Structures are given as C-alpha cells and as structure tokens.
Amino acid sequence: MCGAGHFGERAYDRWFLLGEKRNEQLSLPEVRQYGLDSFGDPDYVSIYGLKPGDWYARGVRIMGRTAVECTRDRLASLIGRDINAPGQNHGLLLAGYRVLGGHEG
Predict the structure, then answer these.
(1) In three state form, how does the secondary structure of the chain look?
(2) How far apart are CA 55 and CA 35, in angstroms?
(3) What is the pLDDT of residue 104?
(4) pTM of full prediction above 0.70
(5) Rounded distance, CA 17 to CA 44, Å?
(6) 27 vs 34, 90, 91, 94, CA distance in Å?
(7) Do residues 48 and 98 lie in contact, with contact meaning Cβ atoms separated by under 8 Å?
(8) Which of 18, 36, 78, 92 could form a disulfide with 100 if both were Cys (CB 3.0 to 4.6 A apart)?
(9) Which residues, including other chains, have CB under 8 Å from residue 55's CB and lie 6 or more apart?
(10) How far apart are CA 102 and CA 90, in angstroms?
(11) Tell me, what's the pLDDT at 48?
(12) Longest distance between any two alpha carbons in the chain, whole Å
C-alpha cells in the first residue's frame, strides 16, 4: 500500500468499486483498503461474522459491487430485529393499511 490510507494512488471508495472495479474480483488487500478508506476499518466487509482474512482464506471471493453492498453483521442484525418486531404478530400499519403479514385480531 502506498499513500496515506490508499491502495496505490486511488481511494477505494464506493464510486471506484461501483465504477472501474464493479465486475472485477477484489484481492484481499483491496477489500481491506475499501474498508479502511470508506469506514476506517479494514475488517468492515465481514461476511457471516467472518473478517476478510478469514473468509478469503476459505476461498470466498467478491467483486467490487458486492463489497459495496455488504452491510455490517451487527447493523444487519439490528435492522432485522427492528423489522421483525412490529410485524411479528400484528402486521405493520402504514397510513392505515396493513402491509406486512400478521393476524387479523
């Protein structure tokens, strides 16, 4: 890595990964650089609780667009719980309309 916080001369941000790197398989250093440049965390792109070094060692490879689409496991869990809680038994009401399952009482 060269430069302050950059892999080579280019920042590994969402625009670069959705543009030039969109359909290219990323190397482990590129995945870590994206995490560092975009979120200050080289382990940002965790998949099913595995850090990049762990999932990469198991043979998992991702493209630039996939790295951008990843949601942190912790955040994804919180979103899932928030979505599930109100719709679990009663459905979700928006503007008076039931939009998610649930049971009519």
Answers:
(1) CCCCCCECCECCCHHHHHCCCCCCECCHHHHHHHHHHHHCCCCCCCECCECHHHHHHCCCCCEHHHHHHCCCHHHHHHHHHHHHHHHCCCCCEECCEECCCCCCC
(2) 15
(3) 47
(4) no
(5) 15
(6) 11, 46, 43, 44
(7) no
(8) 92
(9) 46, 47, 48
(10) 5
(11) 84
(12) 62
In angstroms, rounded to a whole number, what is the distance separating the alpha carbons of residues 55 and 77?
A: 19
The 3-class SS string of 42-61 reads CCCCCECCECHHHHHHCCCC
Backbone angles phi, psi at 97, to 5 degrees: -110, 135
| Structure tokens given for 6 | 């950059």
Smallest CA-to-CA distance from 38 within 70, 79, 63 is with 70
User: What per-residue confidence (pLDDT) applies to 51?
Assistant: 94
Q: 47: which strand partners?
A: 50
Extract the tokens encoding 67.
């790295």
Mean pLDDT by 10 residues, the chain (105 residues): 55 94 96 94 90 96 93 76 66 52 47
